[in-house]
Every structure is written in C-alpha cells, then in structure tokens.
Recover the amino acids of this structure.
C-alpha cells in the first residue's frame, strides 16, 4: 500500500525479478484499475495513450531510461482523491506470451491542515508550493501467470 496526499506526486513501484535486459520493442506494459480503466499503456517501445482514462491524461509517466533494466514503476503527478484505488502493473512479452502481474493499493488523503504559521526560520526550508514526490519503496515481485485474456488486451 502506498499513501499520498492530494497534489503530491507518487511513484507506484513495479519491478521485474530477477532484473535483466527487457526487450521493450517486443513487450507491452499496462497500468490499470480493474479491467476497464487504463491508467498508462506502453507498447512497442513507446507510450500508447489513446485509450487512457481521461482523469489520468497528462499526469502519468514511466521511467523509460530504466525500463530495460526492469523498473516498470509508474509516476502519477498531482494526485487526486479519485486516484485512490488498487492498481495492476501487467507486463507481457509479445513473443513468449509470458505475462507478469503485480498489484498495489494507493490510498489518497486530503492534505493535512496547518494550524499555526511557521516561524521565520522554518519558512526558508520548504517552499509551501513545492511539489512533493512520495516514493513507495515496497518491492513487489511479479508472479508468472499463464496468459489470461484481460479486457484491455483486446484494444
């Protein structure tokens, strides 16, 4: 489970184990909620966001420079209350039809209220408008699954 406040940037972890060179041009990566809501889709070495849920448009990204080494994590910017859900990370190799899947729950809360103004010495430390990146450091190994048709794979 990952936790984030509204307005923050969160990283949902997803890594292959054991890490190795992945052939991104011959694979697909789905980040989705349930079987209907596509959060992010990567195919043939590039993002393919035509079917992306409108609520996530312009707010998701992958670490493309790290993907071939097994980092399939998803970054969501400007987290909103409606982002609170269980996310599935599904990686499929096109040639071998090998599928790996992991799930992670994102819990989103309203930002905490600040009761007292900060003292002058504290004001210089963190600008109030700066975005906060909240990495979720849980390592979730994939489990190998036989190919199971999922609703979004029939795009």
């Amino acid at each position: 489970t990952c936790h984030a406040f509204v307005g923050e940037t969160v990283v949902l972890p997803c890594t292959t184990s054991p890490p190795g060179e992945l052939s991104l041009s011959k694979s697909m990566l789905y980040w989705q909620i349930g079987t209907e809501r596509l959060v992010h889709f990567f195919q043939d070495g590039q993002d393919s966001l035509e079917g992306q849920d409108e609520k996530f448009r312009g707010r998701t990204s992958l670490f493309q420079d790290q993907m071939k080494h097994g980092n399939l994590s998803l970054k969501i910017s400007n987290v909103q209350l409606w982002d609170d859900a269980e996310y599935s990370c599904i990686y499929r190799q096109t040639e071998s039809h090998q599928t790996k899947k992991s799930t992670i729950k994102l819990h989103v809360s309203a930002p905490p209220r600040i009761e007292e103004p900060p003292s002058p010495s504290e004001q210089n430390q963190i600008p109030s408008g700066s975005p906060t990146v909240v990495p979720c450091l849980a390592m979730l190994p994939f489990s190998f699954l036989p190919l199971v048709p999922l609703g979004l794979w029939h795009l």
